[in-house]
Specification:
Mean pLDDT: 86
Order of helices and strands: HHEHEHEEHEHHEHHE
CATH architecture: 3-Layer(aba) Sandwich
Distance between the termini: 27 Å
Number of helices: 9
Shape: globular
CATH superfamily: Vaccinia Virus protein VP39
CATH topology: Rossmann fold
Number of strands: 7
Radius of gyration: 17 Å
Largest sheet: 7 strands, mixed
Low-confidence stretches: 1-14
Structural class: alpha/beta
């Protein structure tokens, strides 16, 4: 899912909000896969105790929630709601219309969470290390964070620049930044091996030279045909070889 935002200076300048809505409608399988992976590693549903109580609800934060696409899927699959942090006023308003608690900045958040997830957001933040440190502070002890980001600077192209990416991550860089935030990595794997080669072609040819790239039709073809095949190959390689993205889980 593409999130086109820049958050380096606290501004709420966005690039291509319409693309977020297109991906919400066109990448149903892809988005659901990401949320399923987050839920799988979140420890949701496991008993916890606070101050002698075992009925405290599991608290989840969607960091960089956009229009609330993943939050809706999380609620559908888990039966539990999430809280959302989103700096863009228009999108935050839509999140609240969809029935979610929404925050505009980390400084507004006063509680701690059992799980925080962030999909395709960190690459838009220049000071990503400082951001991770702040997110770690919002985690309960033994709480977890899930991160999904684009991989390999080798693939960095004009398409990345056009949507406000500062970087694509190496596995080593992402793990080091997570550990520098005081978190222990549980797993870190590549996702979408076919997407890696497709992204390499896009870099070589130039993304504007490929007709209809990013159109609803092309996204639906990717979602329903290419991504499922790519995931099948990912399972065979255990996510250890290549991928367009990195999926990471860490624990406090």
């Amino acid at each position: 899912m593409v999130k086109s935002k820049k958050q380096d200076d606290g501004s709420s300048e966005y690039y291509g909000k319409s693309e977020l809505l297109v991906t919400e409608k066109s990448l149903a399988f892809y988005n659901k896969f990401i949320v399923k992976q987050f839920i799988k590693f979140s420890k949701i549903g496991k008993s916890k105790t606070k101050a002698g109580r075992n009925d405290v609800p599991f608290r989840t934060l969607d960091f960089g929630a956009g229009y609330g696409t993943l939050a809706l899927i999380w609620k559908e699959l888990s039966g539990q709601s999430v809280e959302c942090l989103e700096i863009d006023a228009e999108q935050l308003n839509e999140i609240r219309k969809r029935g979610f608690i929404g925050w505009n900045s980390v400084s507004e958040v006063k509680e701690k969470y059992d799980f925080i997830y962030s999909s395709n957001v960190l690459e838009h933040i220049e000071a990503d290390q400082a951001c991770l440190i702040e997110l770690a502070k919002l985690l309960e002890q033994n709480g977890r964070i899930g991160i999904y980001v684009p991989a390999f600077m080798l693939l960095f192209s004009d398409m990345d620049r056009s949507v406000g990416h500062y970087r694509r991550y190496s596995r080593k860089e992402l793990i080091e930044k997570i550990e520098a935030a005081g978190l222990a990595v549980v797993c870190c794997k590549y996702v979408d091996i076919i997407g890696f080669f497709a992204s390499f072609v896009i870099k070589l040819l130039g993304w504007k030279s490929i007709g209809n790239l990013g159109s609803p039709t092309s996204l639906k073809i990717y979602d329903r045909l290419i991504f499922p095949l790519s995931r099948f190959i990912d399972r065979l390689t255990y996510g250890r070889m290549l991928g367009k993205n990195l999926f990471l889980i860490a624990e406090k």
